[in-house]
Amino acid sequence: MKPWRRLGRRRILRCGIFDLDQAEYAPPDDGVSREFYVIEAPDWINVIPLTDDRQVLLVRQYRFGIADHTLEIPGGMCDPGESPMEAAARELREETGHAAEELIELGWVHPNPPIQNNRCFTYLAPRIRRVAEPTPDPSERIEVVSVPLAEIPNLVRQGAITHALVLAAFHLLDGSDRWESVVCTR
Length: 186
Prior knowledge:
This protein is of the alpha+beta class.
């Protein structure tokens, strides 16, 4: 398939965590052009923190979009000039007070490609250790919850974990060669 042609783009809104652009595209077959909205956002990260005894540290926090609490893994956005791996290490420490001996990139997904231009990278953080008290952002109230890794599929089935990017992260872990070597053996 041939790509659509971008005819123009203008910024219509600047926010603290994203910008909104109005873009005009024409289909490859020279049909009528259309307007679309694109959210320009920094890349995001998710971290699956795993203890030596195969406990996953999850975070429970209030999410304003759904006006309810969610059960997630630590995550956030990359700051300007920060690599996804640097952001993963920072978010792990900020949200849980833990650090990892290594961060293993499991892959990335497009969070919402019809309207967003960014990616969400997922990292496995095996052998985490407590190094400090959590220091979440001022707008965050986080409860750290330890759950056996084997219980994650049940939490998904029961609807306790519903965040799509967290589900994608566990899917990337399940599909990686690290599942057997890091998670299942000991």
